[in-house]
Amino acid sequence: MSQHTSIEKDYVIRVHSDPSALDAPAWNSLLAAQAAPTPFMRHEYLAAMHNSASAVPDTGWAPQFITLELDGELQAATALYLKSHSYGEYVFDWAWADAYRRHGLRYYPKLLGAVPFTPVPGTRLLARDAAARTALVAAIGQFAREARLSSAHMLFGDEADRQAFAEAGWMLRAGVQFHWTQDEAAPAADFTELLARLQRDKRKKIQQERRRVAEQGITFTTHEGAAITEALWDFFYRCYTLTYQAHHSTPYLTREFFALMSAQMPQHWVMFVARREGEPIAASLIAVDAERRAAWGRYWGCTEPVNCLHFEACYYQPLAWCLAHGYRRFEGGAQGEHKMARGLLPVATGSAHWLRDERFAAAVQDFLAQEGQGIAQYVDELREHTPFKTPPVPEA
C-alpha cells in the first residue's frame, strides 16, 4: 500500500510499506543514472530483504520507501525504514539512544535510510536532478516531523547525498573504511605483483599466512554467478550461520534471501570455497559489479578452525580474483584496521542525521564535530603508515 502526501505542488510523493510493489524497472533505471550506484540499491536486492523476511517489521525493519513522481514518471526515490533498534547499521548511535532513555524520552522508532545489514558506500538518494534530490530530502524530513519521530538518519551516502542533507540543515558524521583500489598510473597485473609493491615486512607476513593455509592441505575453488549451485549456497549458508553462532548472535539474513539472490541477481556474486581433500570446510562470498569493476567483501564462515584461513578466504582469494578479472576496487567492509597490512587503505565514509529535539541535536552536533576531527587525524595517521613501498594515490 502507499500513502499520499504533498510537499511541492509539482511532485506526487508516496510512502510505500512494501518494496516489492514498486516499479522495478523504473527504480533500477533511476539507480543507473546516479553517480555511485551499487547492486545493493537495486530493486531486486531491497525487495529480497523484505520478501525473505530478513528486513521486515518483525525484525525491526519496517519499510517506508519514499518516491517522487512528476507526470507519472519516477523522479526520485530512497529506501527508508522505521527502526525499533540500531542493529545491522554499522554507524553506531547506541549512546544517543541511551541518552534519550536516561532523560525519559523515546528514541525508537527512528527513521533510517540505509541498505539493511550492508555497510557499502554509494548513492542513497536516487534522483533525476538536483531539484528532485532537494525535494526528496525535504520529503524525508517532513515524514519524520509528521510522524513525531525522534530522529532520521541516512547512512553511507555519496557526496551528492551528503551535500543535499547539509544544505537542508542535517548534521554530517564521518567514518572510515578500508578499500583496495588499483593503481591507475601503474596497474598491478596480478596478486604476485601486488605483493611485490608492499613493504617487505607486510609482504613476508602475507606469504607466511598463505603458506600456513597451504601446509594444512587447503585449496580453493571459485564459483561465479549461475555456477554457484544450490548445494554450494546451502554449504555457504551453514558457514554463514556458524560465524554468528561463534559470536553468540543470530544471523541477520535468511536462507531465502540467498535463494532470491541466486535466482534474481546471480551475476553479482562470487563464492570462494576452501577444501581439504576435496571436502569443503569454509566459504566466503563477495558481491561484484562487472560494469563498474568493483567488488565488495560480504560474508564468510568455516566448519572448523584453520590458522589464517579467514585472511586467505576474505582478502587474498578475492584480491587475486579482482586482479585476474580487471577489477579496479575491492571494498573490505566495515571497520578493520588490520586490513591495511593486506593492501586496503583508509577511505572516508559519511552519514547524515536529523534530531527533532533541539537540545539533543546541539549536543550531538558538538559530539560529531569532535568525532570528525578525531577521525580526520586518524585517517591522516593511517595514511602515513602505508603498507606500500610507494603509496598509491588515495581514493577520494
Question: Mind explaining what this structure looks like?
Answer:
This is N-acetyltransferase. GO terms for molecular function: transferase activity. It holds the Pfam family FemAB_like. The chain has helices at 24-32, 43-51, 94-102, 130-146, 159-167, 191-196, 200-215, 230-246, 255-264, 309-324, 358-384; strands spanning 2-5, 12-16, 61-63, 65-70, 73-78, 80-83, 110-113, 126-127, 151-155, 171-181, 218-224, 269-276, 279-289, 294-302, 329-334, 345-355. It is of the alpha+beta class and 396 residues long. It folds into two domains: 2-176 and 347-384, Gcn5-related N-acetyltransferase (GNAT) (Aminopeptidase), CATH 3.40.630.30; 185-327, Gcn5-related N-acetyltransferase (GNAT) (Aminopeptidase), CATH 3.40.630. An eleven-stranded mixed β-sheet has the order 3-6-7-9-16-10-15-14-13-12-11. It has a five-stranded antiparallel β-sheet with strand order 1-2-4-5-8, with helices on both faces. The chain is globular and about 60 Å long. The model is unreliable at 1-6 (pLDDT under 50).
CATH superfamily of the largest domain: Gcn5-related N-acetyltransferase (GNAT)
Q: Which sheet architecture does the biggest sheet show?
A: 11 strands, mixed
Termini gap: 40 Å
> DSSP strand (E) fraction?
25-35%
* CATH-level-2 architecture of the largest domain: 3-Layer(aba) Sandwich
Would you identify the regions where 5 or more consecutive residues have pLDDT less than 50?
1-6
Protein name: N-acetyltransferase
Pfam family, one: FemAB_like
GO molecular function, one term: transferase activity
Keywords: Transferase
